[in-house]
Amino acid sequence: MNTLAKLVWIEVKLFAREPIAVVFAFAFPLVVLLVLAGVFGTEPDPSFGGVGGVDYYVPGYLAVVIASIGLIGLPVHLASLRERGVLRRLRASSVSMTGVFGAQTAVHVAMAAAGGALLLVAASLLYDVRAPSSVAGVALGFGVGTLSFVALGLLLGSLAPTARAAQGIGLVLFFPMWLLSGAGPPREMMTQTMRQLSDLLPLTRVVTAIQEPWLGTGSNLSELSLLAALGTAAVALTAWRNAEGPAGAATLRRKPA
Amino acid sequence: MGSVIEVDNLRKRYGSHMAVEDVSFQVLQGEIFGLLGRNGAGKTTTVECLQGLRRADGGRVRVLGLDPQRQTQQLRRRIGCQLQEAALPDRLKVWEALDLFASLAPGGPDWRVLMDQWGLTDRRTASFAGLSGGQRQRLFVALALVNDPEVVFLDELTQGLDPAARRVAWELIRAIRERGATVVLVTHYMDEAEQLCDRIAVVDGGRVVASDTPQGLISRFGGPIKVTFTPDGHDVRFLQDVTHVQAVRRRGDRIEAEGTGPVLALVAAELVAHGLVPGDLKVEQPTLEEVFLRLTDDQARHREAAP
């Protein structure tokens, strides 16, 4: 096994040994979805654009899984690896930061997929969820959304000085995005200002990119390209942030105590 | 023996703080070289520049003939590092860490052998969080050796260990040298430096203030050696004419002859020649600790500069 594969495998095992780390990403969207689905049911409703609450929210909460991993789980994990000197130790043994970030990407994409699958299974067992109009479109929206939010997570994890800071930043970003992205109150119900804010949030793009092909209400191409651009920008900034010095001095920029 | 590390006028600043102002030294092949200094003296920054973990602001550094800034990857294949304040993920197991780091250095020794040599085999499935301080250090040393390095950097290896574990760590450091590697040891423990190091550079305020063997430092900067005994009423003024004796004075009922170098043997021989065989002849050698305090204590330096 090469080093990248080993890093990925080790990360998987570490998460398996400390499953509490992924509880939030898995449980929060599921619980909220089940509550909302229980309240709004499957009757078509004009405030949900003429579909049932369950059908409206299932794609939305797939996006919330992505957001909780990209905004909280990944940055906190990465910042804690750096804070504890794990990244430094790896770097001293020629593990490239590209390798570390690649492994984190692989593991967190897999985690998002698992969280999404869990959500779908639970929702369809409990409710009569309408099948997606375009499975490929949903998969593409979920995939691009995940990659762009994982890229965002790598950037946040590189910027946050400590795991605590990463958690604070992550929560501050997560909750407004969750409430305003359409995964909270439907966008149709929002005020003008809320909708304008909502338009600016990347999570809104993910929600729409999964919702549209699911409900067959439109093409998600513009969302996909915006998310791809966001992801690319985040990757570029992450690379810039970590590339200073002989081997990426981001983890060493702090003055030693 | 050629030199494996050459550092000339190394300089490194963090913002307005000059961490390393002017550090120069050479490390010879096969020796244990100590960088000795107080906290914040610039030791860690210096070795981090040597390992290619930091970019120097000035000066010239060569490790195994390589430039750590430009030939970082080539260099890292040939050096081993134990870093200050580094950790592994809590849930990572001993064997997994060794296996991972070994995969970075194909062609190195079998990590299972290392695990055995460093007494970690019965802890192989223990997680990092569950290891004792000494076990963690053994693991870090084993990880530093997975690529069969020619130079090993140990930064405060024994920090936080109890005295018994420190003794064990010293044996480990000697064992690394036995393997044929050159060792650069960063420490602020005098006994450690005195016990282990072939040569020492004392770093203070970002500069090398002295560099020599431990014994050389002691004889150069340690001040005089004191030989004391009870004369039992004999006249010992003849001691003043013994070579290497600088002063003879009375302290209570004891005589104290102060001198340098082989003063003990010379005083003893002269006493015997005069028929004196005191049973309580003692020598007080200056220690490396005294040398260190003398060399690094700013206040002491000012006192000496302006008596």
Describe the structure.
Chain A is mainly α and 257 residues long. Chain A has helices spanning 3-17, 20-40, 53-83, 86-92, 97-126, 135-159, 163-180, 192-200, 202-215, 221-242. Helices cover 75% and strands 0% of the residues of chain A. Chain B folds into two domains: 3-212, Rossmann fold; 224-284, YebC, transcriptional regulation domain (Alpha-Beta Plaits), CATH 3.30.70.980. Helix content of chain B is 33%, strand content 27%. Chain B has eleven helices and 13 strands. Chain B has a six-stranded mixed β-sheet with strand order 5-6-7-3-8-9, sandwiched between helices. Chain B has a four-stranded antiparallel β-sheet with strand order 11-12-10-13, covered by helices on one side. In chain B, α5 (133-145) packs parallel to α6 and α8 (214-221) packs across α10. The radius of gyration of chain B is 24 Å and the shape is elongated. The two termini of chain B are 43 Å apart. Chains A and B meet through α1 and α4 of A and α1, α2 and α3 of B.
Are there runs of chain A of 5+ residues with pLDDT below 50, and where? 245-257
Structural class of chain B: alpha/beta
Structural class of chain A: mainly alpha
Rg value of chain B: 24 Å
CATH first level of the largest domain in chain B = Alpha Beta
Helix content of chain A: over 70%
Largest interface: A-B, 28 and 41 residues
Please give the order of strands in the largest beta sheet of chain B: 5-6-7-3-8-9
Q: What is the overall pLDDT average of chain B?
A: 89
Quick one: biggest sheet of chain B?
6 strands, mixed
Q: What does the radius of gyration of chain A come to? A: 19 Å
Q: H/E order of the elements of chain A?
A: HHHHHHHHHH
Q: What spatial form of chain B do the alpha-carbon principal axes imply?
A: elongated
- Order of helices and strands of chain B, N to C? EEEHEHEHHHEHEHEEHEEEHEHH
